[in-house]
Design goal:
This protein is α+β, with helices and mostly antiparallel strands. It has 21 helices and eight strands. Strands 3-4-2-1-5 form a five-stranded mixed sheet. Strands 6-8-7 form a three-stranded antiparallel sheet. The protein is globular and about 60 Å long. Its main location: mitochondrion.
Length: 411
């Protein structure tokens, strides 16, 4: 059984030369902004960083000497967050509206041709937050808001991945989609990968607009965990591109939208124009792991010794760890009842020695992602309203069909 992230990247590597010819200007023009973008994301690593003032552009971007167009984008994004009266504890912007992805044309933020910008807001008290926001921005909500902020908050917390999305609204002259999540729910997902919906987003480059010390610390653990999980999907030798595609693909494993609602080349498209950003995020993590080494600028090897891989398994987020062990004990390779009596470290050594470890890991990831992705999408009909949900889904399907019908090099 092939492992999805590796297959996607291996196939795309075959097109690397032709893609490089087709998109040289894209890679060149965005290299400087990627450096600035990564510095911003690294706020999530820094435990000393505190909440940024609403009106200030990210300090790291200013210090990094970003281009004028990048500075203008920062100001526009900050103005969106500042427009909300309800208190936002943690805020990021992400997606193709912020970072160029292969297949998109550069467009100024807020312009007619610009993609919708995605935001994620971490808030301390969701019910209070929605109460304030409904007063200010009632038009952002569906008819659900007529039932009050308590109902809105309950829908947010009890359905899907714990987010409440308001898509396709205009704030400060920018067309956006914003999701609201409680800080506790966000940090739990970063720690334990309850749904991978939030942790998966922060495994990719994001623009941090308001930082939080607890999120910073939790995401350091999340980034290390994503490398460990990706290594279990990869062979002894692989490229940086394959590793980054494996990491970017973790939170899409088992997601039904990859089959019917997203560009099938989405993972590669995310990584291709953001290689420098991924490298800046993950190279320090890779170099700190005992079983992984760079053998050239872009080639990596890992030691597949069972003891070292057992250590990787033991340090995985709790939810993924438990599912891998459960699937292993159900597999024919485990010899059934004989492994049930094993204690650590013998159990981890047994799992790490399994030739089906990559497939078991992928299956476990799919179990984590599948239902939250389905239920969060169904919740979108309720929270966005049928009309807006229909329009939003139509745009997604259009992009999906375009990606499937186009050659991979131009996806």
């Amino acid at each position: 059984m092939a492992v999805f992230p590796r297959v996607a990247c291996r196939a795309n590597a075959c097109f690397r030369a032709s893609v490089a010819v087709s998109f040289p200007s894209v890679r060149t023009s965005f290299r400087a902004s990627q450096q600035s973008v990564v510095t911003t994301h690294r706020h999530l690593h820094a435990t000393t960083q505190s909440r940024s003032p609403p009106s200030a552009a990210p300090t790291a971007l200013a210090a990094g000497g970003a281009a004028d167009v990048q500075s203008e984008m920062d100001l526009r994004l900050q103005s969106v967050v500042a427009d909300f009266h309800a208190p936002v504890r943690f805020a990021i912007a992400y997606g193709s509206g912020v970072f160029l992805q292969k297949g998109y044309k550069p467009a100024a933020i807020g312009s007619k041709d610009a993609p919708m910008v995605d935001f994620l807001f971490g808030v301390t008290h969701p019910e209070h937050w929605h109460s304030l926001n409904i007063r200010q921005n009632r038009h952002h909500y569906s008819a659900l808001a007529y039932l009050g902020s308590k109902v809105v908050s309950n829908v947010q917390e009890t359905m899907g991945a714990g987010l409440y999305f308001n898509p396709d609204v205009e704030v400060a002259g920018v067309r956006i989609k914003y999701g609201v999540v409680s800080m506790d729910r966000l940090i739990r997902d970063l720690h334990d990968w309850e749904t991978l919906y939030l942790a998966g987003r922060l495994q990719k480059p994001v623009k941090v607009l308001r930082s939080d010390a607890r999120v910073n610390l939790a995401n350091r653990r999340n980034l290390r965990a994503s490398v460990r999980a990706a290594l279990l999907l990869l062979p002894s030798e692989f490229t940086e591109e394959e590793l980054f595609c494996a990491i970017a693909g973790l939170s899409y494993t088992g997601d039904f939208r990859m089959k019917m609602g997203e560009n099938p080349h989405k993972v590669f498209n995310i990584v291709y124009t953001q290689m420098d950003a991924f490298r800046e995020l993950y190279k320090p993590v890779i170099e700190d792991l005992p079983n992984v080494n760079y053998v050239s600028e872009s080639q990596i090897v890992q030691d597949l010794d069972a003891r070292l891989r057992a250590q990787l398994l033991q340090k995985l987020p709790q939810n993924l760890h438990d599912k891998i062990y459960l699937y292993y004990q159900r597999s024919p390779a485990s010899n059934g009842s004989s492994t049930a009596a094993l204690q650590e470290p013998q159990l981890s050594l047994s799992v790490a020695s399994s030739p089906q470890l990559a497939q078991i890991t992928e299956q476990s990831l799919g179990d984590i992602v599948r239902w939250p992705a389905i239920s969060q999408s169904l919740k979108g009909i309720l929270t966005a309203g049928f009309a807006r949900a229909f329009v939003y889904a139509g745009r997604k399907l259009k992009k999906s069909f375009a990606g499937r019908s186009s050659p991979r090099k131009s996806s």
